[in-house]
Amino acid sequence: MTLKRLFFSYRTVGFAVSITALASAQAGFQYNARDLVFGFRDGGTSELVVDAGPASTYYNLAVGNELIISNVTTQQLSDAFLDLNNLSFSAGADVRITSDPTYPFNTIWVTQARADINFQTTPWQRRGQTQQGTTVGKIEGIVDPTVGAVAYANSISTGPDNTSYGVIIPSDDPGHREYSTFMGSGNYAGTFPGVVELTTPPDFSTAGQVVRADFYQLKPGTGNGTYLGYFEFSPSGVMKYHSGASGSVTIPRPTITAIQRTGTTSTITFTTVSGGTYTLLYTDSAGLATPVSTWTTGNSIAGDGTNKSLSDTSTGTVRFYAISAH
């Protein structure tokens, strides 16, 4: 489902994002070899490192299947960042043993942001074992028990911001154990020939459009890396993984072109395409702390490629609207 949100009120209102907190784990941050590691940053005061479990969970997932990455929690995202706008993240894993004939020493798994969510990116290129080894050093550094996230987690108390699956680290940590130390300019501090991070748009929290990053396996050698699937991050803070290629999204995000108020009736006009079904969603100020998908559902209309309108009647002083499309 794609969303376009426009706020309408009969007086000046403010907007804030609230992300629901979840129960915390009891153990401090942990990492196991060959786990998939997420890093999040926005240039602010905090960064977040998450262990998303064994990389095999992702590269062995049957094509067409999808899973929610529960270790990326709304609580830790909320604690680390004011909102999800302009948030950069990556996911990476590596092999540091020589006894695996299927996945050789210095095999890596890395992400690449999609410029268009409907289309797969150009595959990363495989490199020699020594070259990929320099990148492995940075991936391992993110969670290293001496200089990385595990070291930082061991230096503080456990709690909601330091659980077995994720830890929030100050961006100015005196020990330089934050994610940025090892990621640098999005390319594992210059050891990888491309940017592996995805950065969300400035209006990500309110626009309702997901973002996607492709996931590649790079065994040491030459030629294209192996495409495995893609990660999808939503404005509500949910991270999913889909195995295999995505089909083209045929229903684009609608654009609200006008809103009019006559008496107690608001009329919202928006773009449509043939084959789409469009639904009006609305909430009051209290509802802004909840995902758009949970807002009250109004009327629906079929699209035909022309602008359409949906109306809502309310005697309240403030109401917020969104249009969903599927």
Describe the structure.
With about 325 residues, this protein is mostly beta strands. The protein is built from 6 helices and 17 strands. The strands form 3 sheets. Strands 2, 3, 4, 5, 6, 7, 8, 9, 10 and 11 form a 10-stranded antiparallel sheet that branches. Strand 9 (about 210-220) and strand 10 form a beta hairpin. The longest helix is centred in the middle third of the chain and has 15 residues, at about 130-145.
Summed up:
With 326 residues, this protein is mostly beta strands. Helices cover 13% and strands 33% of the residues.
Shape: globular
Helical fraction = 10-25%
How many domains would you count in the coordinates? 2
* Poorly predicted residue ranges: 1-26
Q: What is the strand content? A: 25-35%
Order of helices and strands: EEEHEHEEHHEHEHEEEEEEEEE
State Rg.
Answer: 22 Å
The main pleated sheet reads as: 10 strands, antiparallel
Cα end-to-end separation: 5 Å
Tell how many strands the DSSP assignment holds. 17
Structural classification: mainly beta
Helix count equals 6
Rounded mean pLDDT score: 88
Question: Secondary structure elements and their pairing?
Answer:
Blueprint: E1 2-9, E2 35-41, E3 46-54, H1 56-59, E4 66-68, H2 74-80, E5 88-94, E6 108-113, H3 129-143, H4 149-154, E7 166-170, H5 179-183, E8 198-199, H6 204-207, E9 211-218, E10 226-233, E11 239-243, E12 256-262, E13 265-270, E14 277-283, E15 296-302, E16 308-313, E17 318-325
